[in-house]
Write a structure and sequence with these properties.
The complex is a heterodimer of chains A (108) and B (115). Chain A has 108 residues and is mostly beta strands. Chain A is built from no helices and nine strands. Chain A has a five-stranded mixed beta sheet, with no helix packed on it. Chain A has a four-stranded antiparallel beta sheet with strand order 2-7-6-5, with no helix packed on it. The N and C termini of chain A lie far apart (35 Å). Chain B has no helices and eleven strands. The chains are: A mainly beta (108), B mainly beta (115).
Chain lengths: 108, 115
């Protein structure tokens, strides 16, 4: 079973920030938090990952709480092309366990 | 484009048959992973290879097998196919270096339809 809990769906207005939450209360000390997304039936696309510190790249920001029990993926200016299923995964980078994810719909 | 390639893109076959799916990892990646995505099960990890050796096993059926060759490409063999094997099969690769925490990069997948 996945070690994460995500809302099944979210809507976001185009141009606004999309904030996707993830709970991982049983995360171990050395486990990373990964975010992927899947657009239709394409291969999952890596977005970002982090251990303890907040991370930012050209796609998104990852905010991890101090106790590491939850995190938020932020897409700063969502576009229609960001409509996808977003997966939050915790682990060591090996055999990922995917949950059902959050279906994000970006609305015009 | 993740740099991971998979062939074929689509495969249609009959029950009882055997098929081989192929994956070429990103340049420099030593580890290959196979995942299955079906409508009712979601994305499930099947097996991992690292530099030619099996490293981890997930929910892989005994009818399925995989290997990684010296040039690091990998093949997933599915035999005695059943209707329920119809799914998307994804390959991913990573460098898998210590310390762990490496991201995996996924290929475009092979869509298998068993009739």
């Amino acid at each position: 079973d996945a070690k994460t809990t995500q809302p099944p769906s979210m809507d976001c207005a185009e141009g606004r920030a999309a904030n996707l939450p993830c709970n991982h209360s049983t995360i171990s000390g050395n486990e990373y938090v990964y975010w992927y997304r899947q657009i239709h039936s394409q291969g999952p696309q890596y977005i970002i990952h982090g251990l303890k510190n907040n991370e930012t790249n050209e796609m998104a920001s990852l905010i991890i709480t101090e106790d590491r029990k939850s995190s938020t993926l932020i897409l700063p200016h969502a576009t229609l092309r960001d409509t996808a299923v977003y997966y939050c995964i915790v682990g060591y980078g090996q055999n990922f366990v995917f949950g059902p994810g959050t279906r994000l719909s970006v609305l015009p | 484009d993740s740099g991971v390639t998979q062939t074929p893109k689509h495969l249609i076959t009959a029950t009882g048959q055997r098929v081989t799916l192929r994956c070429s990892p990103r340049s420099g990646d030593l580890s290959v992973y196979w995942y299955q995505q079906s409508l009712d099960q979601g994305l499930q990890f099947l097996i991992q290879y690292y530099n030619g050796e099996e490293r981890a096993k997930g929910n892989i059926l005994e009818r399925f097998s995989a290997q990684q060759f010296p040039d690091l490409h990998s093949e997933l063999n599915l035999s005695s196919l059943e209707l329920g094997d119809s799914a998307l099969y994804f390959c991913a690769s990573s460098v898998f270096r210590e310390p762990l925490g490496n991201e995996q990069f996924f290929g475009p997948g092979t869509r298998l339809t068993v009739l």
